[in-house]
Automatic annotation (TrEMBL):
Keyword Transport recorded: no
Similarity field: Belongs to the quinolinate synthase family. Type 2 subfamily.
Keywords from the UniProt entry: 4Fe-4S, Cytoplasm, Iron, Iron-sulfur, Metal-binding, Pyridine nucleotide biosynthesis, Transferase
Residues that bind [4Fe-4S] cluster: C144, C229, C315
Originating organism: Pararhizobium mangrovi
Protein name: Quinolinate synthase
Known catalytic reactions: iminosuccinate + dihydroxyacetone phosphate = quinolinate + phosphate + 2 H2O + H(+)
Residues engaged in binding iminosuccinate: H81, S99, Y170, V171, N172, S187, H255, P256, E257, T272
EC numbers on record: 2.5.1.72
Species lineage: Bacteria, Pseudomonadati, Pseudomonadota, Alphaproteobacteria, Hyphomicrobiales
Cofactor mode of binding and number, as noted: Binds 1 [4Fe-4S] cluster per subunit.
Keyword Aminoacyl-tRNA synthetase: no
Localization of this protein: Cytoplasm
Needed cofactors: [4Fe-4S] cluster
InterPro entries documented for this protein: NadA, NadA_sf, Quinolinate_synth_type2
């Protein structure tokens, strides 16, 4: 059988009915801030009160109410990453978590539609984990600097250059890149995944810093790629030491996408979920989360008494997801994520191998 060219695959894809054709387009809901909407959303406002001034709530509330109503009508669930804004994280999300938690939860979703409030690779992962579901991402342009740092052709070249060396690929990559990999990892299980492989040398791609941080925790030789997270690469050890100088009791909690020098001056390093658990468990008087700064806003209301110091680095890709775009996506059924079945099967194997290890 001859392999399908990209053009063949595109035309096959285009021939499929769109999500709008399958589910229908609904009328735009009214977005007035009525007394009913005020009553309905009042408990949700309490969760975001610390971040959303009361004067702004009449703008958010009609979207929150409309999205929650549409989710029921459409049989949809919202999976939101820990970096989403408080109004999304606390008011419309059904499931929140880090990349690994979201991938595992996506597999269990029973509803017909998954709305992924996160970046494109996360939506693709949900589609891989639960291919029967319709997966929507409210802004198709929500990318990731790590995902964009490497292509499937790059991975094939790495295989040629390092024959027999297993390739561990961070989930922050496209399905095409995952399909060329042996196994995926996330920031919460990278060391475990690397350790599980029967090889003294492992390619850990594309995040150079994550790979270097893994290398410090294993005896295996780790080969890296030059990808970086544009948010985490901005943090420096000097900057963090200045905070420590000002307050030696401050807890510094960092994400492993940061440079190893940053992790060296941190009290804890882990995935976004690991960072949240650490703060909830330790309840430090003052903490600095060395990561995308929306996360501090999300956790803050759950740990009263903990003061968050926020050097505010925002992920421009995560910020593309907004309440109006979620509503538009659910009304018009736009932003459907599809993965070529031939690529999906191979990419799924790499993700499932990781999930099996996590289980
Ligand atoms: P987590 O898997 O730790 O949530 O990280 C995802 C991510 O994109 C961090 O920048
Ligand atoms: Fe990608 Fe960094 Fe944004 Fe995470 S924070 S989605 S790694 S660019």
């Amino acid at each position: 059988m001859t392999a399908l060219t990209l053009a063949d695959r595109m035309s096959t894809r285009d021939a499929l009915p769109t999500a709008a054709e399958r589910f229908g387009v609904l009328a735009r809901p009214d977005l007035d801030y009525t007394p009913e909407i005020a009553r309905e959303t009042a408990p949700l406002y309490e969760k975001v009160r610390a971040h959303t001034p009361e004067i702004e709530w009449p703008v958010y509330a009609p979207y929150v109410a409309a999205i929650n109503r549409l989710k029921r009508e459409r049989s949809a669930v919202i999976l939101a990453h820990n970096y989403q804004t408080p109004e999304i994280y606390h008011c419309v999300a059904d499931i929140v978590g880090d990349s690994l938690q979201l991938a595992r939860e996506a597999e269990k979703v029973d509803a017909k539609i998954i709305v992924q409030c996160g970046v494109h690779f996360m939506a693709e992962t949900s589609k891989l984990m639960n291919p029967e579901k319709t997966v929507l991402v409210p802004d198709m342009r929500a990318g990731c600097s790590l995902s964009e740092s490497i292509t499937a052709a790059d991975v094939r070249l790495l295989r040629e250059r390092y024959p027999g060396v297993p390739i561990v690929t961070y989930v922050n990559t496209s399905a095409e890149v995952k399909a060329e990999s042996d196994i995926c990892c996330t920031s919460s299980n990278a060391v475990k995944v690397v350790e599980s492989l029967d090889s003294d040398t492992v390619l850990c791609i594309p995040d150079e810093y994550l790979a270097l941080n893994v290398a410090r925790q294993t005896n295996k030789k780790i080969l890296t790629w030059k990808g970086h997270c544009e948010v985490h690469e901005r943090f420096t050890a000097e900057e963090l030491l200045a905070y420590k100088d000002a307050d030696p009791s401050i807890q510094i909690v960092a994400h492993p996408e940061c440079h190893p020098d940053v992790l060296a001056v941190s009290d804890y390093a882990g995935s976004t979920a690991g960072m949240i658990d650490y703060v909830k468990g330790k309840r430090p008087a003052r903490v600095l989360l060395v990561t995308e700064c929306s996360m501090a806003s999300n956790v803050q209301s759950e740990v009263p008494g903990v003061e968050f110091v926020k050097p505010c680095n925002l992920c421009p890709h995560m910020r593309r997801i907004t309440l109006p775009k979620i509503l538009e996506s659910l009304t018009d059924m736009t932003g459907e994520v599809r993965v070529d079945p031939a690529i999906a099967d191979r990419a799924r194997r790499a993700v499932e191998r990781m999930v099996a290890l996590a289980n």
